[in-house]
């Protein structure tokens, strides 16, 4: 194609190369949003430090995919400018979503678990071909982009980790069959545990606890028909009203015989470090899950003790080390507003009162979900 362009007082004919069809297609694909993404949920200020460090750790370990932070109107609007600024620095996307709450729910372990229903909104994000949900109380310790390529038998399947049901602390809320001998991780050893997790018990066979999953991390392929089916399940299945851990119990029931187990390293619950020592290796953990009390709730004591039973000093130290790295990086960049926002959401950092930050975990130490 020849195009006439004016330069000074004259006109110059300049030959312009017409892009090829393949180049045009590539350009269009580059303009589209990525077809894969990580997703987390943020509903209250007390989880802001966790979500910020989750995004930071994904970026630190060179993930190719963005983190979509679903947030609900319950998150104070005053936090959004600084959150938006941090998102622009950490390959994250803020996305407002509506809370999801069934009509009846009578058996929750703690009222804070009402928020976790909204995690299911991930299944209406149909513009993505593959999504991986991560709880906001996780810290990524190694690249795990390979999860997006996890083979599944069909689009109506998910992948997740087994729920650890050891209950070695004897929590009263736990069902009677939550015991070490019934845990899917009992008997696993390193290194075979990394690639050969315990099979999911099919309906009517095997220990029922081997069919339970932990929804802190799960891989899914969202599409409209699946979401419609899930909404009908929410509205009509009588079990929904009695779920102890809302989204987690629903996923285990809805995807019964349709979920694939993953190696523990992708959802390494911090208590596994001392509950399953034959399996756990610090250097193998890709993604650490801070269930129960969160490291940003309290700084490490001088003797290094942390956690409500004093056993989590080492894993909590990992979080504080990464927080120090993130804060120092933002300070050097002149992003004081972002740092102040995060500090304001944590008692240990000088912000919220401890009771508000903890969200009542002291009264209900529920390990199945958080």
Automatic annotation (TrEMBL):
InterPro entries: Glyco_trans_8, GNT1/Glycosyltrans_8, Nucleotide-diphossugar_trans
Pfam families in alphabetical order: Glyco_transf_8
Region of interest (Disordered), residue spans: 1-35
GO molecular function: glycosyltransferase activity
Name of the featured protein: Glycosyltransferase family 8 protein
Organism: Diplocarpon coronariae
